[in-house]
Amino acid sequence: MIAPLVVLRRGPDDFLLLTEPELGERVRAELTRFRFAARAEIDPEEHESWLVLGGEEVLDERPPGDEVGEEEYERWRVETGIPRWGREIDHSILPAEAGLTETHVSFTKGCYPGQEPIARLHHRGKVNRRLRLLELDGEPTSEELVLDGKVVGRITSSAGDRALGYVRAEVPEDAELRAGAAVARLH
After folding, report:
1. Angle, CA 69 vertex, CA 68 and CA 72 arms, to 5°
2. 115 burial class (0-12, 13-18, 19+ CB within 10 angstroms)?
3. Is 52 exposed, middle or buried (0-12, 13-18, 19+ CB in 10 A)?
4. Dihedral-angle region of residue 102 (phi above 0 means left; psi in -120 to 50 means alpha; beta otherwise)
5. Distance of alpha carbon 34 from its chain centroid, rounded?
6. How far apart are alpha carbons 110 and 115 in whole angstroms?
7. Which domains does the chain have, with CATH numbers?
8. What is the dihedral sign for C-alpha 105, 107, 108, 109?
9. Is-contact 178 172, C-beta < 8 A?
10. Spatial separation of the C-alpha atoms in residues 50 and 35, rounded to whole Å
11. CA 150, CA 172: separation in Å to the nearest integer?
12. Phi and psi for 14 in degrees, rounded to 5?
């Protein structure tokens, strides 16, 4: 993965790509490199955005007073299993490991970086680890998840008694994993 993107069509030939602030230049450079002969301009823009949780309505203005803090947002994100760049996803994670294949990968569209291993895994393989929601009993004193003395995963984010982490596929659903002083169970 290069970067998480949200693509908004603003007009027939005008698209806005939203990503993490620190990844904007990398996205621009990659798109410039891969645009081939297309006549496209790729210009950086800065925007303020916010995430609206719940409801089906479209909002035209920033909602007054209903903002949540970073801690509440992080709890929601972890409980919902949404991976975050720099924690659950980066250049070393395959989309299938993060549970993103169904919603973020096309197997019918043109070429893209990393297409071969992603397609090979989808059509012939199985993932060795998966992003999982964990229920914690106690405060983790280690990111490593251990089962029977063997490291079988790692915690990537935690919020209260919930955590996200990558766990080896062969770990039984009812396993009790150790995260230092805490016990973690697959949820």
Report:
1. 80
2. middle
3. exposed
4. alpha
5. 23
6. 9
7. 82-187 (2.40.30.160)
8. positive
9. no
10. 30
11. 14
12. -135, 115
CA distance 26 to 52: 27
Each residue of 5-34: pLDDT tens digit? 888 999 998 999 999 888 999 999 988 887
Residue position matching structure tokens 């007073």: 65
Other residues' Cβ atoms within 10 Å of the Cβ of residue 129: 20
* Mean pLDDT score of the chain: 87
pLDDT (0 to 100) of residue 116: 81
Q: Which of 170, 163, 90 is nearest to 127 (CA)?
A: 170
Rounded alpha-carbon distances, angstroms, from residue 4 to 49, 65, 90, 97? 15, 28, 9, 15
**Residue 139 phi, psi (nearest 5):** -90, 120
Which pTM was predicted? Answer: 0.80
Backbone angles phi, psi at 133, to 5 degrees: -85, 135
Kindly tell me if the per-residue pLDDT of 129 is higher than 60. yes
CA nearest 180: which of 170, 49, 163?
Answer: 163
Residues 6+ apart with CB under 8 A from 120: none
